[in-house]
Design a protein that fits this description.
Layout: H1 2-12, H2 16-43, H3 48-78, H4 83-103
């Protein structure tokens, strides 16, 4: 069984940085509407131009920063697993996000 996990990790290891970005982007897709609804509620009493400007800043810089800094953080978290289980950790993380997306009726 360890050989299977090691083979999976060996195959996926060159792509861990990209997989971290994919995982972060998937999390933002699944939970972005919650972030947007909170921001919408906070910005509701303000003038239209300010609301639109802050929304653009949130989308352009906020989500960009979350992806830019969140992906290495996720990679760092996966790196705590022993090397042979890191590939399986990524696969399980994607499956868990898929499960959460299913529970939120995204699938």
């Amino acid at each position: 069984m360890n050989e299977l996990f090691s083979a999976l990790s060996r195959t996926l290891s060159p792509y861990y940085a990209e997989m971290s970005i994919m995982l972060m982007a998937t999390i933002l897709v699944v939970y972005g509407d919650i972030i947007n609804s909170h921001i919408k509620r906070i910005l509701a009493p303000y003038h239209f131009i300010l609301r639109v400007s802050l929304f653009v800043v949130l989308c352009a810089f906020g989500y960009g920063a979350l992806t830019l800094y969140g992906a290495p953080f996720l990679h760092h978290i996966i790196a705590y697993l022993p090397w042979q289980y890191q590939g399986a950790g990524f696969v399980l993380a994607f499956m868990f996000i898929g499960f959460l997306a299913e529970r939120r009726k995204y699938i």
